[in-house]
Amino acid sequence: MIRITHHRGKCIGCNYCMEVAPGRWEADLGDGKINLLESVQKRGIYIAIVGDDEYDANKEASKICPVNIIRVEKV
Ligand code: SF4
Quick check: helix, strand or coil at residue 36? Predict the structure, then answer.
């Protein structure tokens, strides 16, 4: 399994993460930021535990995020 962490408050809504990992991220038309799908929120940080098959795409998302607010780690 992998853990994806998203500091949503700092998101600038560029959608790069959604472009490389479209099954895990979705644009929020309400405030223009991105939502980490199937995540739980703790003190403003969104966390999703998902299968290893999503590692490569979301690791790529973490690398291209211009504000460096995505973390991906194996758990
Ligand atoms: S790449 Fe980073 S800043 Fe851009 S939408 Fe995704 S989380 Fe937000």
Answer: strand
Specify burial of residue 45 (Cβ count, 10 A radius: 0-12, 13-18, 19+). middle
Rounded-to-integer distance, Cα 42 and Cα 32, Å: 21
Q: What is the DSSP letter of 28?
A: -
Ligand 1 centroid distance, CA of 31 (Å): 13
What would the mean pLDDT of 14-33 be, rounded to a whole number?
A: 97
> Is the pTM for the entire model greater than 0.85?
yes
The count of C-alpha atoms lying within 13 angstroms of the C-alpha of 27, restricted to the half-sphere facing its C-beta, is 9
Residue 69 Cβ contacting ligand 1 at under 6 Å: yes
Nearest CA to ligand 1 atom 4: 14
What is the dotted CATH code of the domain comprising 2-74?
A: 3.30.70.20
